[in-house]
Amino acid sequence: MKIKYDKEVDVLYIHFSDGKIIKSDEAKPGIIFDYDENGNIVVIEMLNASKKIPQPMKFEYEVA
């Protein structure tokens, strides 16, 4: 999994795999799910991320 924040365009990307994106669906305004040919989520994109989350460049990772 890879998380990337592009501050120039204010988009947060959460990559779950390197699969080829076949379909995209805007689940809610500004939240886009990208799917592979098997319907698995490849990437979640959050547009205008700095307006939706307080610190898009900071995240925590936890294993339980």
Summarize the main sheet. Answer: 5 strands, antiparallel
Average of the residue pLDDT scores: 94
Please give the count of helices.
1
Helix content: under 10%
The dominant shape is globular
What's the quaternary structure here?
single chain
CA distance, first residue to last residue: 17 Å
| Poorly predicted tracts of residues | none
Describe what this molecule looks like in 3D.
The structure is a single chain. Strand 1 (2-6) and strand 2 (11-15) form a beta hairpin. Strands 1-2-5-4-3 form a 5-stranded antiparallel sheet. It starts with a strand and ends in a 12-residue tail after the last helix. By secondary structure, it is mainly β. It is built from 1 helix and 5 strands; from the N terminus they run βββββα. The chain is globular and about 35 Å long. The protein has one helix at 49-52, and strands at residues 2-6, 11-15, 23-28, 31-35, 41-47.
Brief rundown of the structure:
By secondary structure, this protein is mainly β. It has one helix at 49-52, and strands spanning 2-6, 11-15, 23-28, 31-35, 41-47.
